[in-house]
Design a protein that fits this description.
Length: about 350
């Protein structure tokens, strides 16, 4: 049986010529010598530059420990910002110094001759293993680490000190509150008024129009022992819709005249859910796009979250202000090892 050859399927070069069956080896580019290859002073200068970069890393690592010890986060936004800034800059110098030193070392001090080797079978025979060990020894010799004591000391010191910038703050926080059940306790109690974040002004039900959304905090939040910590747990997103749009509620009296309130802490990884879509009644987390239906007890309709947002039962007091009937119905925030659903 004969087959028909379609010449239109033949591959050609850009000028229309047929592709060759085998390409010629173009070889290696001509090696361009560096200044340090022929000038010992230039090579010594490059070595000092690498040492300086490692020294910067050492200072950064020490600085991270000092910044953590002398500039604690504190209880104010300003102190937290300053502590994070100093700690972040110090860690940057610690890691960047190591990285830049390694790159400069490789480019300025190690052998830069290009080599081409034929491809061979990858079976790890004994001769191959012996050759690999020889190559490693040659690499150590090529790096000149054995005869550059200052360079070796700077590298070892920077690598040894850098983990301290991470380990010291981590160990220092081990004495904190590791009670995972703390997420079950917030400032919300029966009778606590809902107030606007951040002004703290109480909210009357008559001030909340259909389609509006409010970011809410408990009344007298500033009087708490740790206001920022308590706010992080108690923040609420409150919206109002037509009561006829409510599909279900978790119990009698969880909302007031179409006004519903849910924790702003996403049940995926704890990002703030702060976006409300008026037409669909969807609440969106901007971090990973978890989407919750405010009209249906904030159940998950899209995204990686597995639990609904905890709902805050609300009503009004004698003066018409919105108040909590109780705390959240479930622990706020993402799941942990004691709470998988």
């Amino acid at each position: 049986m004969s087959t028909h050859h379609d010449p239109s399927t033949d591959l050609t070069t850009r000028d229309g010529a047929p592709l060759p069956e085998r390409f010629e080896d173009p070889g290696l580019h001509e090696h361009r010598a560096r200044v340090g290859d022929s000038d010992p002073k230039a090579q010594k200068r490059a070595e000092r530059q690498v040492v300086v970069l490692f020294a910067i890393s050492i200072l950064g690592s020490i600085g991270a420990v000092v910044a953590y010890a002398l500039v604690p986060p504190g209880e104010t936004v300003g102190s937290m910002r300053m502590s994070n800034l100093l700690l972040g800059l110090a860690l940057f110098l610690g890691l960047a110094g190591i990285g830049l030193a390694a790159v400069h070392w490789a480019k300025a001090l190690m052998n830069d001759h290009e080599r081409a080797e034929d491809r061979h079978p990858t079976a790890t025979s004994e001769p191959v293993r012996v050759k690999a060990v020889e190559a490693l020894r040659e690499g150590v010799k090529d790096s000149s680490i054995g005869r550059r004591g200052v360079l070796k000391g700077a590298m070892v010191t920077s690598l040894a000190l850098f983990p301290l910038g991470i380990a010291v703050p981590l160990v220092g926080n081990l004495g904190g509150d590791w009670d995972v059940s703390a997420s079950k306790r917030t400032l919300w109690r029966r009778g606590v008024r809902l107030t606007i974040d951040p002004s703290g002004r109480p909210i009357k039900a008559s001030d909340v129009t259909i389609g509006s959304a409010f970011h809410v905090i408990p009344e007298n939040l500033e009087e708490a022992e740790h206001p920022l910590d308590e706010k992080a747990k108690a923040v609420v997103l409150m919206v109002r819709m037509d009561p006829r749009d409510l599909k279900s509620e978790q119990g009698e009296g969880w909302s007031y005249d179409g006004i519903v309130a849910f924790s702003k802490i996403c049940t995926h990884v704890g990002c703030p859910v702060a976006l409300y879509e008026q037409q669909t009644h969807h609440i969106l987390c901007p971090c990973h796009q978890s989407t919750f239906d405010a009209s249906d007890s904030a159940k998950v309709v899209f995204g990686p979250a597995h639990r609904p947002l905890p709902q805050l039962p609300i009503t009004v007091d004698d003066e018409g202000y919105l108040v909590a009937q109780d705390g959240f119905d479930t622990p706020i925030g993402p799941s942990f090892w004691e709470r998988l659903t």
